[in-house]
Specification:
Bound molecules: zinc ion
Distance between the termini: 27 Å
Strand order of the largest sheet: 2-1-3-8-7-4-5-6
Largest sheet: 8 strands, parallel
Number of strands: 8
Order of helices and strands: EHEHHHEHEHEEHEHEHHH
Helix content: 25-40%
Length: about 375
């Protein structure tokens, strides 16, 4: 089999747009539609081996796999009320919040099911990746943690799955997912993110390695503000493939937040979307090498909707093995402008970029090398090797 034969599913529904904290909130639900419209305009859904699927709603039983009944009831109550807060202020309640959140969890479960039942090799749900939510509280724009529910769902329904790995490349630490499985040796969580001393949620240090029998199954790579393409790829390539090839999971779930982009208003990374193509390419190769291609790709952060849509289209094209044209389709540019007043780039890959100065680059590369060395010395040797 060549990669060009892989079967791909893209889970999408306009219901995703209802996950909306209001016009002043930085999380823009329209990025889901912008991404879908871009893939549609690129005619990717006309390719035989690429399928568009509607998500199924997560049931109460599904949500209870990870979340407490009390918390689910609280979300329901606030959802009917239409106001209130799920955390200290980042995650306000809105009318219909329960359904809007449950469909996103359902979409991740749909993606998992289609991969596990052999309907496809790789499945995408860019509405998922809500990695901050805890079992008993919302956090950081995340109501339910679809990744944690998805892992519990895999463990309950597919006993052949003995090991699961999560690769989280969002600019923020994947704290909710990490702590959900902090004492579970069958789940390896890897998170590359901006150093918690500078960015929410303030955790994700190298010293967070898991507990009890799960020591070595929590891996964190905190990177300095200003991290740019070469520095980021150095960290990713030195650590992630080795960690995955040691742990040898049966399936990989990736949280593919793209708030690491240089244009992102909430974070301090300086990546261009070329990096996402490289990460996707590396991950695609790895999943075929180690877990029979079983790969679920979720979304996450990305607070410049236009850049997010182009970034996710690049991730999709790379994993699906389809070529991208140089230019963004005119019908997509028109759609973004007419419907949302958003001006878009003429090219899919970033062309305008002013990264750090060369002195700053040298400093950043050195800083990243130190983090990489620390992870190599203190964490990689602890990862439980698969016999
Ligand atoms: Zn493939
Ligand atoms: Zn984020």
């Amino acid at each position: 089999m060549t990669y060009k034969d892989c079967k791909i599913v893209y889970v999408f529904n306009e219901e995703f747009l209802k996950y909306d904290f209001g016009p002043a909130h930085p999380l823009r639900p329209e990025r889901q539609l912008l991404t879908y419209k871009l893939l549609e305009a690129l005619k990717f859904f006309e390719i035989d081996r690429i399928r568009l699927e509607k998500p199924e709603m997560a049931t109460m039983e599904d949500l209870r796999l990870f979340h407490t009944s009390e918390y689910i009831e609280r979300v329901k109550r606030l959802s009917e009320l239409g106001y209130g807060l799920l955390d200290l202020g980042d995650t306000p309640a809105f009318k219909g919040m329960f359904e809007a959140s449950a469909i996103r969890v359902g979409a991740t479960l749909t993606a998992i099911r289609l991969v596990m039942n052999g309907i496809c090799d790789h499945a995408f749900n860019f509405s998922g990746g809500l990695h901050h939510a805890r079992s008993n509280q919302g956090a950081g724009f995340c109501v339910f943690n679809d990744i944690a529910v998805g892992i519990k769902y895999l463990k309950r329904n597919y006993p052949s799955i003995e090991r699961i790995a999560v690769v989280d490349v969002d600019a923020h630490h994947g704290d909710g997912t990490q702590y959900a499985f902090y004492d579970d040796p069958s789940v390896l969580t890897i998170s590359l993110h901006e150093d918690g001393r500078f960015l929410y949620p303030g955790t994700g240090f190298v010293s967070e390695i898991g507990t009890g029998t799960a020591v070595g199954t929590s891996l964190n790579v905190p990177l300095p503000p200003g991290t740019f393409n070469d520095a980021y790829l150095l960290a990713f390539n030195e650590i992630v493939p080795t960690a995955l090839k040691t742990f040898m999971p049966d399936i990989i779930i990736q949280q593919f937040g793209v708030d690491t982009h240089f244009s992102d208003p909430l974070t301090d990374f300086m990546l261009t979307n070329h990096v996402y193509a490289k990460i996707a390419g590396t991950m695609h190769k790895i999943v075929h090498e180690i877990c029979d291609g079983r790969y679920v790709i979720l979304g996450g952060g990305g607070y410049n909707p236009e850049a997010t849509a182009r970034s996710w289209a690049i991730v999709f094209s790379k994993i699906a093995g389809v070529d991208l044209p140089e230019k963004t389709p005119a019908e997509w540019r028109d759609f973004c402008l007419k419907k949302y007043g958003i001006r878009t780039s003429d090219t899919i890959f970033d062309t305008e970029y002013h990264g750090p100065s060369s002195d700053k680059r040298k400093f950043l590369i050195e800083a990243v090398k130190r983090v990489v060395e620390e992870v190599k010395e203190r964490v990689l040797p602890l990862i439980p090797e698969r016999k």
